[in-house]
Structure formats: C-alpha cells, structure tokens
C-alpha cells in the first residue's frame, strides 16, 4: 500500500538547488580532480557502452526508428572512440604547458595549468540522444568536473536508459542525470553552474545564454543552421551524390545538425559531365549536346538512381531510414512540403505515412528563396535544389544568410575550392564530401554566429571544460628600481628601452644617452 | 524622442556601412592587417606627448607610469602581433589516422566580422588598444567605445584613430551609458568588454539576444599572500613589489592590482613596520607632492572610497596614511590592519589606494579564506615554501597566479590573460588576442578517388563488420573481411 502512495517528487528549483549544492560539496572534496577518478569514470562509460549496446540500439529504435547500423556506428562506436581517445591522451592533457618568457618579465618561468571548472550542466538533444549526451560528458569528466546531464525528453527511451545506466556505472556522488522537460530544465537553468553545454536549436540557445548571463556562466552552444552543398560540374557525380545521400538520409533521415540542408548548383551543368557506368549516361550526354537547358535533371537522375539503390522503390518501407521523431516535427515538415510555392517543385518522393511518422526521401527543384523550406533549418528528409547561373553566386547566397554549422562543396576546380574555403564562413567546411569532419578528433566541432558558440571533440572537449590558469614563478632577484616610485624621467627613459627589448637601447639608457 | 530615433538610425547606418566594408573582404587581407598594426605603432610613437597629457589629466598619472603600463606595453604587443601574424593566419594542420586516405584536415582561423570593444577608464588607452590589436590582427572591422569617465583619453582616441587607421573599418563611438546601452543591443559578431561584473552581466544578457560570443574582463579582490620570509632581502623585495603593485598602478584602481594582503599573525607587525619604511621611500613625506600616485578618477569613486573608511571600526584600523583631499580627488596611500571582515572594504573590490592587511593563524588558512570568496582575477603569493606553492596552485582558482611578484603577468605575451567565474570569461594577450577574435574553422578536403563502398546503404552485417574494423583502424581485419576470411560477428564488442 505504501509503495502505491509514493509519488515522484517534482524536480523544482529547490531540488535543483540542493542537487547543485551536493555536487559542489563533492567537487570541493577533490574527488573528481584525480587522474584515477577521471580514468575510472571514462572506463565506466566505455564498459557501459560495450555491455549495453543492444539496449542502446533498442532505445534508439524506439525513440527514432533508427536503423541498427546507424545506432552502432554513429552513436555507440563514436562514443567509444571518444572515450578511448580521451583515455589515451588524458595524462598529456592534464600536464601543465610550459611557456616561454621574455625580457620584459625576466627572470621568470611560466606555465599554463588546466584546472576543472567545477560543476557543469550538459543539456543534450534528441536526434543523437546517446552520443550528444555522453560525448560532452567525456570532456567534462576528462577535465575533472562534476556533471549534471539533462537528456532530451523528446527521446524518452534513451533518456530513461541514460538515467539508469549512468546511475549504475558512474560515480553518482559527482555525476547525475536529471530527466524531464521544460519545468525541470528551467529549474536547472536558474542555478549557478561553472559552465553550461547545450546542444539544440537557436531559440532555446538564447534562453540558455540569458540564464547563464545572470551568473556570469560561460557557455558552449552547439546549434544548427542550413548547411548548403554546392555542386560544381566536372566531378564524379555518382560519388558526389552517394556522399550527399549518406550524409543526409543516412544520418537519422536528415534530422542531423550537419546534414546537407539544400543543394546549390548551376542551371548549366551538361558540358562538364563525367562518364557513368549506367545506361542512361548516353542519353544524358545526348541531352547535353542537344539541350543545355535541362542538364540539371541529369544530376537529379543520379540522385534518384542512387536513392533507389540505397532505399529501394518504396523507401517508406525501407528498414534503413529513421522515422520522423514525433508528430510535431512531422507536421512541421509536411507544412514545408505542402506550401503552395513549393508543392509543385517536388521531383522525387513526397510520399508520407502519418501513422508511421515516415516521410520518403524527397527532392525539390528550383524552390523560390522566400519559401518556408528555404527559411528554416529543414532537419528532415527533404532536399531542395537551388539553381544559379554562375556557381560563384552560390557563395553570396550562403553568406547572405545566417552562418551555418557546416558547408560543403563538390568540385575539382582548384580556384573554386580556395575561394570557397577562404570566403564561406561556417562552423566547418568539407570539400568533396559531407559530414565526415565530425569524426576527426583533431578538429574542433562547433558553430559560428547563429550556429553556435565554442567547440568540442578530442582535446577541444577537455579544453571546453577546463580553466587555463596562467602561473608565473619569479625569484626575488632581478628587480629594477625603475619599476617603483618615485618616478623620474631617467626611469622613464630606461623603461622605454627595456620594453623596447633592444640591448643597445638599454645600454644607452643606462648611460644616459637616449 | 525624434532626436533619439535619428541618432539610432544614424548609428545603424554607420554600422551597416562597416558591415559592407567587412563583406568587401578588405579587412581579411594580410596587408590590411599589417597596415593597421603599423598605424597603431605610429599613433603610439607620434602622439606620445598627447597621451601623457591626457592620462595626466584624466587620472593624474606620471609619464613613467603611463609608459610602463600603457604605451610601452602596447608597443610590445603590436610588435608581437606583427611578428606572429603570418604564422597565426595560416592555421594548423590536423592529424588524421592512416585510414583517412587522400584526405587532409586543417584548422583555418577566420575573422568574426564586426566586433565591439568596450573599454574601461583606469587604463583608458591600454585597455582600448590592447583588444584592438587582436581584433585587427584577426581581420575584423571594429567599433571601439572608450570609457566616458576618462574623457580626455576618449577624445584623443576618437581623433587619432581615424587618422592612423582605416576609418571605414575602425570607428570610435564616444558616449556614456546611454550610448553603451544602444550599442549593446545591436547585432555584433563579438563583444569584448572590460569593466565591472555588474555591467558584465548586462553585456552578456544583451549578447544572448543575438547569440553573440563575448569576452568579459572583469575584476575581483586579488589577494597577496605573504608568507613569513626569513631573508631580509626577500622581505624587502616582497614588500616593494606588493606596495608597488597596490599604489603605483593607477593608485590601486587596477583589476589585477593587489586588493588586500594575507599574512600570519606572528609576521604581521614586522611586515607593517617594513611597509612603512618602503612607503616613505616610494612616496616621500607628502605623497601628493611626490607625483608618483595617480588620483581617483572622479568624485563618485572618491566618495565611494571615502565611505569605506567611515565605519569607525575600519577607521580605527588605519596604521598608515588615511588623509584625503576631495578637491584634488587625492587619497593618500593607506594601510589598514585587520578591518572587520563584514565591512564593505573587505566585501567589495576596493579599486583604490587602501590596503587592508588580514592576519591569519597559519598561512595555509589563506587557501580557505580565498576559496570562500568569489574567484579573483589574480592571486599573488610571496613564499619560498615549495609545499605551500603547490597547494596554492592546486587548491585555489583564479584567472592567474603569480609567485613572488604581482601584475607582471600582464606583460607576458605567451600567457592567457583573463578571469574565471565572477572575474570574467575568455582571455587575450599575444596569440590569445588573435584567437579570441577569430573563428577556428575546421576544413576537410577529400578526394573522389577513394571511398569505402561499405559507407552506403543498404545495410547488412558484412558492412557492419567492415565498419567495426575501420573504427578500430584494424587494417588487417578489413582485408580479411573483404576477402571473406573473417566471420562477421554481431555480438562483437570489438568496436
């Protein structure tokens, strides 16, 4: 009887405040600072992922309909790699970095010491709910912090799994999970944290930063944007399309922050076609010779062809595509598709099944720039193609909008590549592929402008959760009277010479000659 | 009201012009950046006398102080930036695993765009131009808003900068809190603010509207922990350095100045006696005539500092100095012994020439004392004791920590200069200035020649196995799987 009466206590401001106080006590005790603790926690995450891979796959299937291979590779394997990399490098990261000192501070030695920030809050997203919750946790632990993780309520099975598993495998005096939605997140955001790490959209990102402002808490915001793919002629179109497809629909069916959002290409692609081992290449070469006006259809056909190879003729039944996460997003996406301006521009796909929350891979051609689909991050299986006269125009189009999290270009033209790399501003750029930069530990992963603040992955994760403290050691020797009052013009002369750094100048000043 | 709207529109127009200028790509060129830095160098050399005059007028600084802290330091920083610019602009290659055939990765720094630098009044030239060096080296267009509380310096900058720098891409906007407020609500690609925590909160709250990244250089109560030193030589040096750091840098109005001293009870009287001797040497019998102490910036701060001494318990703890002259806004360098810890002088950042000495039973108690207060911008520790040194580094947290000296970290180009917690976020100086005004863009280039066919759907166990081997960099495994010699293992925990 008593068990039935037990109600879940709401997680309100008071609960949040006492949680933070508890973790501060744990942090102050120094537990999280030792190498042993950090190493044991990282190993815990690794074991947890190994021993429960199937549970993770099941939770992701329940939350997102995610294909097993995506779950294993993009969530479990990536998280494992992150742990392993941190374990391998941890000792080196924790060591102070000696720095050179110069004449102006002579004699002295100096170093930069990495210390944990304290108690940090990590708020994660729903599309890669396992990875995006734990990858930042890896950085926070490696840097020696106490952590509160708030997984996304839009992926409830994964959220529950994380709460259960982290409770079992991690040191719960310093690592906790708080499940919940807006009220719980609000309660958490009212507290004073030493850092807040948020993955999600710009609207909530602003709320997080405004809450952090009250306590002068630094933040990392991993947001999103419309990641464009510029496609040039004179390339291997089949490979390019495959890479675009796997980067879009192969990533949670387009519900990924760095998935290609839209394509920009020229109206005039035909003369630079590349030979393909498919029968219709002959037809399209003729097309190219006969008519230069519709050659972009060639590209759409390559896309269509590859999509069919990957997902079959009835993609709504393919087991290799995630579903749309929930009915809100389903409605949002169908609205984008059904807007008058674009509904006639669908050249492939467009099928949907509201009962299964599935939308087939869909391509739209020549959408107007003021349509809804071109004015918000799509985050779904719809791929609009914008056409321009000259490819150089695409850079202006991209730069006229908010800076995206990623931007891609497929080209063999060296000048175009350089122009793209030097002039397009985005979190990260990839030439001749999409999304792969995510997997490179040595590259910072983060946005710029509307797509985010800060970065992580590899050592950047460790740095994001550390304070780099400058430490200077001076001896009592080597003082110059010129440092101190009373101030005289003679001292001024000498000071000028010293700060100027030239030995001759110093000698001159000492002998009163400058 | 109309004037207000007009002024706002005018500001927006100016900013839009600057954004246009940035978009034209001019500021990204290495040659432009070099020319701006060289322009700053010329400004500092040619306008030196004017700068001395302005600093004397605004703060009563002697040229030696002005040169040491502002002009000289800036010249050093500009030269450092000119020296490093090419290297900094070229970015870094990123290491890739061997499996990433024919792929290159690199981190390329790019400017953020149009940035806002808001500076403070205590080192009005230094704190305006030091961030400017970083912003220009990184290729941004910049708006500088100097502090209105140092009006001569603000005017000087407003006149000189358009003359020496590119006036389409670098502008000075003068004004008080009203202008500051208006500027804050515009859309910037970065805001760099030096000042108080109170305004710092406003800055980051305004920045949140546009998701603008910020660097906040704030303040705090920077303690100087003085251990019992046996050598009289060391004692003299320590006292000189602490008193110099307190009183000869803008009369204590410095974010990294010494705020208060912590010392063991048994050493405290010897320390105070030594301090009195050194004070006389540095400032003479009449500090005001010595011209070696700056004055308080304005009446508001003068009255604030005076009120710190109104509490009778605080007043009675004065052991040296204490005289004040409202007309000349001068406060004599003053030392206090153990004022009550709840008094305002021990709760708020003093930012003036009043030095409280707090005595402790054991010097190690200073760790808890410091940790029970907000994290300061700097901690100074004077000791030769190795265990104490190690404890101080590992058990306290501050922007920086310096042993056996103070303030000197400001001059080090290789050390990040910034705070933590209430003392700020972000850092600058040297290359850190360049980085703070840059976006580190990740760039990956791939070839069409190599792809792993198992990258693409439809998925099957075979492809899964290949992926497992790839992630493991298990090249042999890949070959064997492809040749059909390795069984696919679904339950494999190999990844």
From TrEMBL, chain A:
<dbReference type="GO" id="GO:0005737">
    <property type="term" value="C:cytoplasm"/>
</dbReference>
<protein>
    <recommendedName>
        <fullName>Aldehyde dehydrogenase</fullName>
    </recommendedName>
</protein>
<feature type="active site">
    <location>
        <position position="222"/>
    </location>
</feature>
<dbReference type="InterPro" id="IPR012394">
    <property type="entry name" value="Aldehyde_DH_NAD(P)"/>
</dbReference>
<dbReference type="Pfam" id="PF00171">
    <property type="entry name" value="Aldedh"/>
</dbReference>
<dbReference type="GO" id="GO:0006081">
    <property type="term" value="P:aldehyde metabolic process"/>
</dbReference>
<dbReference type="InterPro" id="IPR016163">
    <property type="entry name" value="Ald_DH_C"/>
</dbReference>
<dbReference type="InterPro" id="IPR016161">
    <property type="entry name" value="Ald_DH/histidinol_DH"/>
</dbReference>
<keyword id="KW-0560">Oxidoreductase</keyword>
<feature type="active site">
    <location>
        <position position="257"/>
    </location>
</feature>
<feature type="domain" description="Aldehyde dehydrogenase">
    <location>
        <begin position="14"/>
        <end position="274"/>
    </location>
</feature>
<feature type="domain" description="Aldehyde dehydrogenase">
    <location>
        <begin position="302"/>
        <end position="471"/>
    </location>
</feature>
<dbReference type="InterPro" id="IPR015590">
    <property type="entry name" value="Aldehyde_DH_dom"/>
</dbReference>
<dbReference type="GO" id="GO:0004029">
    <property type="term" value="F:aldehyde dehydrogenase (NAD+) activity"/>
</dbReference>
<comment type="similarity">
    <text>Belongs to the aldehyde dehydrogenase family.</text>
</comment>
<dbReference type="InterPro" id="IPR029510">
    <property type="entry name" value="Ald_DH_CS_GLU"/>
</dbReference>
<dbReference type="InterPro" id="IPR016162">
    <property type="entry name" value="Ald_DH_N"/>
</dbReference>
From TrEMBL, chain B:
<dbReference type="GO" id="GO:0009737">
    <property type="term" value="P:response to abscisic acid"/>
</dbReference>
<feature type="domain" description="Aldehyde dehydrogenase">
    <location>
        <begin position="9"/>
        <end position="443"/>
    </location>
</feature>
<dbReference type="GO" id="GO:0006081">
    <property type="term" value="P:aldehyde metabolic process"/>
</dbReference>
<dbReference type="InterPro" id="IPR012394">
    <property type="entry name" value="Aldehyde_DH_NAD(P)"/>
</dbReference>
<dbReference type="InterPro" id="IPR016162">
    <property type="entry name" value="Ald_DH_N"/>
</dbReference>
<dbReference type="GO" id="GO:0005737">
    <property type="term" value="C:cytoplasm"/>
</dbReference>
<dbReference type="GO" id="GO:0004029">
    <property type="term" value="F:aldehyde dehydrogenase (NAD+) activity"/>
</dbReference>
<dbReference type="InterPro" id="IPR016161">
    <property type="entry name" value="Ald_DH/histidinol_DH"/>
</dbReference>
<dbReference type="InterPro" id="IPR016163">
    <property type="entry name" value="Ald_DH_C"/>
</dbReference>
<dbReference type="InterPro" id="IPR015590">
    <property type="entry name" value="Aldehyde_DH_dom"/>
</dbReference>
<protein>
    <recommendedName>
        <fullName>Aldehyde dehydrogenase</fullName>
    </recommendedName>
</protein>
<keyword id="KW-0520">NAD</keyword>
<feature type="active site">
    <location>
        <position position="217"/>
    </location>
</feature>
<keyword id="KW-0560">Oxidoreductase</keyword>
<dbReference type="GO" id="GO:0009414">
    <property type="term" value="P:response to water deprivation"/>
</dbReference>
<keyword id="KW-0175">Coiled coil</keyword>
<dbReference type="Pfam" id="PF00171">
    <property type="entry name" value="Aldedh"/>
</dbReference>
<comment type="similarity">
    <text>Belongs to the aldehyde dehydrogenase family.</text>
</comment>
<feature type="active site">
    <location>
        <position position="255"/>
    </location>
</feature>
<feature type="coiled-coil region">
    <location>
        <begin position="1"/>
        <end position="28"/>
    </location>
</feature>
């Amino acid at each position: 009887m008593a068990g039935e009466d037990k109600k879940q206590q709401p997680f309100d401001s008071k609960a949040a405040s006492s949680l933070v106080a508890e973790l501060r006590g744990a942090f102050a005790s120094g537990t999280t600072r030792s190498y042993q603790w950090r190493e044991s926690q990282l190993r815990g995450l690794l074991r947890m992922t190994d021993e429960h891979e199937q549970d993770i796959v099941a939770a992701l299937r329940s939350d997102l309909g995610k294909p097993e291979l995506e779950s294993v590779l993009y969530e479990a394997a990536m998280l494992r790699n992150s742990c392993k990399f941190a374990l391998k490098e941890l000792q080196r990261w924790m060591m102070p970095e000696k720095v050179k000192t110069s004449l102006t501070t002579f004699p002295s030695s100096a170093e930069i010491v990495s210390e944990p920030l304290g108690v940090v809050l990590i708020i994660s997203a729903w599309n890669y709910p396992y990875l995006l919750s734990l990858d930042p946790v890896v950085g926070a632990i490696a840097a020696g912090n106490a952590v509160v993780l708030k997984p996304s309520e839009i992926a409830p099975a994964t959220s529950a799994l994380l709460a259960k598993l982290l409770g079992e495998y991690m040191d719960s005096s310093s690592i906790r999970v708080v499940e919940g939605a807006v009220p719980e997140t609000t309660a958490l955001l009212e507290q004073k944290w030493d850092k807040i790490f948020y993955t999600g959209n710009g609207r909530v990102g602003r709320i997080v930063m405004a809450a952090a402002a009250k306590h002068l808490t630094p933040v990392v915001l991993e947001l999103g944007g419309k990641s464009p793919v510029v496609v040039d002629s004179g390339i291997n179109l089949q490979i390019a399309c495959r890479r675009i497809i796997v980067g879009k629909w192969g990533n949670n069916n387009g519900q990924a922050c760095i998935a290609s959002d839209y394509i920009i290409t020229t109206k005039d692609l035909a003369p630079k076609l590349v030979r393909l081992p498919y029968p219709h290449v002959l037809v399209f070469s003729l097309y190219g010779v006969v008519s230069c006006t519709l050659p972009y259809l060639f590209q759409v056909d390559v896309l269509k062809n590859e999509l069919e190879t990957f997902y079959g003729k009835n993609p709504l039944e393919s087991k290799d595509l995630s579903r749309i996460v929930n009915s809100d997003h389903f409605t949002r996406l169908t609205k984008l598709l059904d807007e008058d301006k674009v509904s006639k521009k669908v050249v492939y796909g467009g099928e949907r099944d509201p009962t299964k929350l599935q939308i087939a891979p869909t391509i739209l051609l020549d959408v107007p720039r003021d349509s809804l689909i071109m004015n918000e991050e799509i985050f779904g299986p719809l791929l609009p193609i914008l056409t321009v006269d000259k490819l150089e125009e695409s850079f202006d189009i991209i730069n006229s909008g908010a800076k995206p999290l990623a931007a891609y270009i497929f080209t063999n033209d060296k000048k175009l590549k350089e122009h793209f790399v030097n002039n397009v501003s985005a979190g990260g750029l990839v030439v001749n592929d999409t999304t792969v930069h995510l997997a490179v530990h040595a590259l910072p992963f983060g946005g710029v402008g509307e797509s985010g603040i800060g970065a992580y992955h590899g050592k950047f994760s460790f740095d994001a959760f550390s304070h780099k403290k400058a430490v200077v050691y001076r001896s009592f020797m080597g003082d110059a009277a010129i440092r101190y009052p009373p101030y005289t013009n003679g001292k001024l002369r000498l000071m000028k010479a010293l700060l100027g750094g030239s030995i001759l100048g110093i000698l001159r000043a000492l002998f009163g000659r400058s | 009201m109309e004037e207000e709207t007009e002024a706002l529109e005018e500001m927006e127009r100016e900013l839009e012009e600057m954004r246009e200028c940035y978009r034209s790509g001019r500021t990204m060129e290495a040659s432009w950046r070099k020319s701006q830095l060289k322009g700053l160098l010329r400004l500092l050399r040619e306008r030196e006398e004017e700068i001395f005059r302005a600093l004397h007028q605004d703060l009563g600084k002697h040229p030696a102080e002005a040169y040491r802290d502002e002009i000289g330091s800036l010249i050093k920083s500009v030269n450092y930036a000119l020296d490093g610019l090419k290297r900094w602009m070229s970015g870094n290659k990123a290491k890739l695993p061997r499996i990433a055939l024919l792929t290159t990765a690199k981190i390329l720094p790019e400017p953020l765009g149009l940035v806002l630098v808001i500076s403070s009044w205590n080192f009005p030239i230094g704190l305006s131009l030091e961030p400017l060096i970083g912003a220009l080296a990184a290729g941004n267009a910049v708006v500088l808003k100097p502090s209105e509380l140092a009006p001569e310096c603000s005017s000087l900058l407003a006149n000189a900068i358009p003359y020496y720098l590119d006036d389409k891409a670098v502008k000075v906007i003068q004004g008080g809190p009203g202008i500051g407020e208006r500027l804050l609500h515009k859309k910037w690609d970065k805001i760099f603010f030096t000042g108080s925590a109170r305004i710092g909160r406003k800055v980051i709250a305004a920045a949140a509207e546009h998701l603008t990244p910020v660097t906040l250089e704030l303040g705090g109560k920077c303690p100087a922990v003085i251990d019992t030193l046996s050598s009289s030589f060391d004692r003299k040096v320590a006292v000189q350095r602490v008193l110099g750091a307190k009183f000869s840098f803008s009369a204590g109005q410095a974010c990294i100045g010494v705020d208060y001293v912590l010392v063991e009870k048994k050493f405290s009287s010897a320390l105070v006696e030594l301090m009195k001797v050194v004070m006389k040497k540095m400032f003479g019998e009449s500090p005001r005539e010595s011209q070696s102490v700056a004055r308080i910036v304005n009446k508001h701060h003068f009255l604030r500092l005076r009120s710190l001494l109104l509490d009778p318990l605080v007043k009675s703890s004065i052991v040296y100095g204490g005289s004040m002259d409202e007309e000349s806004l001068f406060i004599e360098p003053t030392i206090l012994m153990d004022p009550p810890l709840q008094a305002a002088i021990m709760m708020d950042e003093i930012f003036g020439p009043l030095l409280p000495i707090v005595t402790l039973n054991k010097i190690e108690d200073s760790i808890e004392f410091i940790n029970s207060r907000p994290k300061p911008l700097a901690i100074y520790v004077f000791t030769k004791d190795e265990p104490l040194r190690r404890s101080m580094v590992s058990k306290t947290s501050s922007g920086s920590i310096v042993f056996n000296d103070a303030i000197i970290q400001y001059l080090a180009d290789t050390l990040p200069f910034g705070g933590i917690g209430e003392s700020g976020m972000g850092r600058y100086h040297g290359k850190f200035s360049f980085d703070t005004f840059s976006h580190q863009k990740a760039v990956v280039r791939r070839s069409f020649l190599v792809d792993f066919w198992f990258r693409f759907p439809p998925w099957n166990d075979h492809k899964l196995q290949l992926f497992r081997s790839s992630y493991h960099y298990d090249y042999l495994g890949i070959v064997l799987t492809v040749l059909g010699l390795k069984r696919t293992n679904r339950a494999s925990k190999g990844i």
